[in-house]
Design goal:
The chain is α/β, with parallel strands linked by helices and 430 residues long. It has a domain at 13-73 and 189-253 and 349-411: FAD/NAD(P)-binding domain. 34% of the residues lie in helices and 24% in strands. The longest helix is centred in the last third of the chain and has 22 residues, at 407-428. It binds flavin-adenine dinucleotide (FAD). The site of flavin-adenine dinucleotide has 43 residues, from helix 2, strand 11, strand 15 and helix 11.
């Protein structure tokens, strides 16, 4: 098992194909800012960019490199709504909560597209994501999702039947799908690097290799690293699954989970096109789901797993290759060029957690595997709240945040047990 290297991005396809980005010096000495953001992933950089656009003086402290965490390692899938959908929100938290969160369910994807256009970010954006069903039950659930999303104003979704699947994905695995044309896929590391450059172009400051070691609450708050301190009117905690135990009351409410990704060698262009004729990204409907898409240079990027802590490249390939070859038997023996793992943050409710600690420390975490869009929405909501417009942020902050039962020690075994149970459920189709 190799250890995390904080000075370099994970050895991914993304790191190998990243746009040029400068190294940034670590924090040195005492600095004053309006807002200090902890973590330079989508949540942190998106918040920082919104605030810089509004004229705030913002400094971002990143333990490793911009996009080093999940944001620079993920499947790149723009998936709308939340990890638990609006109907679940309505059932658990009532009609009003569902209406408020439902009104924002497709906003994150719009923000991403606005950013790409406004700042000319090169990140291989493609439209269209597909939820693929193995069983009639899953297909019925997708049909219900379509009706639900249409009630909340989505006009770009359609069902695909078994016959139509050939135009979507060249695999016998599925009986149908839901195609969301407002979803899509992109190179996530290049997106966050581009957003970071946009933030810096507005005068924002990012310090890399600057792990925050202490947060002292107060007005102003103080954020400390080994070599410096930021005094700020507001702090945004955006460390998500990599935050560790910096703020124990946040740590106890989430569980970092690993998911693994492989990328093949470049495929013959015609073969690549035949696998995914619409060039959409796909995620299946299992709880322990597989997700995949083509890259701009005709590789198949395939993820799955959800195994806490699997890091060794051989271990990752032996975990993901059988899944890839089951979906695409025509790729048996294909060369794998890159393997990597990354952590996302799971919550017990599988809904994101946003809130305040005291008056001026804000946080957002726990997108439970579907964070590319939510983190961009969160960035806007955090910036609105800091500017004194609390309404939309509070719609999320009002959701209850449950601690994992059993505390820190039992969280990992509990998840392993949970993953085993959901794996059984996926297999027997209940
Ligand atoms: C392999 C993988 C595949 C995924 N695929 C998808 C997908 O296809 N679609 C989708 O919607 N979602 C996907 N997700 C989830 C999505 O990537 C995340 O929800 C999202 O990127 C989280 O962004 P973030 O900014 O909150 O956290 P991160 O991107 O993890 O950023 C947190 C940052 O905070 C820094 N940090 C932590 N502690 C400190 C500290 N003390 N001091 C300073 N800095 C600190 C870390 O170094 C890190 O850079 C995937 C996740 C993984 C891991």
């Amino acid at each position: 098992m190799h250890k995390e290297d904080f000075s370099h991005h994970a050895p991914s396809y993304y790191a190998a194909s990243a746009n040029q980005s400068p190294g940034r010096p670590a924090l040195a000495g005492k600095v004053r800012a309006d807002v200090c953001v902890i973590g330079a992933g989508f949540t942190g950089i998106s918040t920082a960019l919104h605030l810089a656009e509004a004229g705030y003086k913002v400094i971002v402290l990143e333990a490793a490199r911009v996009g080093w965490g999940a944001s620079g390692r993920n499947g790149g899938q723009i998936v709308n709504s939340y990890s638990r959908d609006i109907d679940v929100i309505e059932a658990r938290h009532g009609k009003e909560a569902a209406a408020r969160l439902g009104a924002m369910a497709f906003e994150g994807g719009r923000i991403i597209r606005e950013r790409i256009k406004q700042y000319g970010i090169q990140c291989d954006l493609k439209d269209g994501n597909v939820f693929a069903a193995f069983t009639q039950k899953q297909l019925d659930e997708l049909s219900a999702k379509k009706a639900l999303w249409e009630r909340y104003g989505h006009t770009g979704i359609r069902m695909v039947d078994k016959a139509g699947m050939r135009g979507i994905v060249d695999s016998d695995a599925y009986c149908g799908a839901l195609l969301d044309t407002w979803g899509g896929h992109l190179h996530p590391l290049n997106l966050v690097l581009g957003e970071a450059a946009a933030f810096e172009s507005l005068g924002g400051v990012i310090c890399e290799m600057s792990p925050v070691t202490a947060l002292v609450e107060g007005e102003p708050a103080r954020v400390r690293t080994a070599s410096g301190e930021v005094e700020a009117d507001f702090v945004v905690v955006a460390g998500n699954a990599y935050l560790g135990n910096l703020i124990p009351r946040l740590a106890e409410k989430t569980l970092p989970c690993g998911t693994q990704v492989v990328t093949t060698a470049p495929l013959d262009a015609a073969l690549a096109r035949s696998l995914l004729p619409g060039d959409n990204c796909v995620e299946d409907c299992n709880f322990l789901l597989d997700y995949y898409r083509l890259t701009a240079d005709h590789r198949l990027l395939y993820g799955g797993g959800t195994v806490y802590g699997a890091r060794d490249p051989g271990e990752i390939e032996s975990l993901i290759r059988p899944k890839l070859e089951k979906t695409f038997p025509q790729l048996a023996g294909v060369k794998i060029d890159y393997t990597w793992t990354g952590n996302f943050s799971l919550t017990l409710s599988r809904l994101p957690q946003a809130g305040r600690i005291g008056r001026n420390v804000y946080y957002s975490q726990g997108c439970s595997g579907h964070g590319v869009t939510y983190t961009h929405l969160a960035g806007r909501l955090l910036s609105e709240a800091i500017r004194g417009q609390n309404g939309r942020f509070d719609a999320f902050a009002a959701l209850p945040h449950y601690p994992f039962p059993g505390g820190r020690l039992l969280r990992v075994p509990m998840l392993t047990l949970g993953a085993w149970w959901y794996g059984v459920r996926d297999k027997v189709g209940v």
